[in-house]
Amino acid sequence: MKTVSLTTEPFTCPSCVKKIEKALTFKDGVQAVRVLFNSSRVQITYDDAKASPEELAEAVTKLGYPVLRVA
């Protein structure tokens, strides 16, 4: 398992957190998702044989939250 931290544009409401968590939880290879509202970060624990940081960043961006940094 690996962990990636994505920094996004600022979230506008707490429902953004639920939307991201729900969508990523169903993505193949994702084991855990933690969204930090105040710092606009998404921490994802994933199986690197099934997903990549780029794929995860793209999934968040497609939800309407552009990823500014992948670490």
What does this molecule look like?
The chain has 71 residues and is an alpha+beta fold. The chain has a single domain, classed as Alpha-Beta Plaits. It has a 4-stranded antiparallel beta sheet, covered by helices on one side. Strand 2 and strand 3 form a beta hairpin. The longest helix is centred in the first third of the chain and has 12 residues.
Itemize the secondary structure elements and their pairings.
Layout: E1 2-8, H1 14-25, E2 30-36, E3 41-46, H2 53-62, E4 67-70
Antiparallel strand pairs: 1-3, 1-4, 2-3
How do you describe this structure in short?
With 71 residues, the protein is α+β, with helices and mostly antiparallel strands. Helix content is 31%, strand content 34%. The chain has one domain: Alpha-Beta Plaits, CATH 3.30.70.100.
Features:
single chain, 71 residues, 4-stranded antiparallel β-sheet, Alpha-Beta Plaits, 4 strands, alpha+beta
Report, as a whole number of angstroms, the end-to-end distance: 15 Å
Mean pLDDT level: 94
The largest sheet, given as strand count, sense and whether it forms a barrel, is: 4 strands, antiparallel
CATH topology: Alpha-Beta Plaits
Radius of gyration: 11 Å
Question: How do the helices and strands follow one another from N- to C-terminus?
Answer: EHEEHE
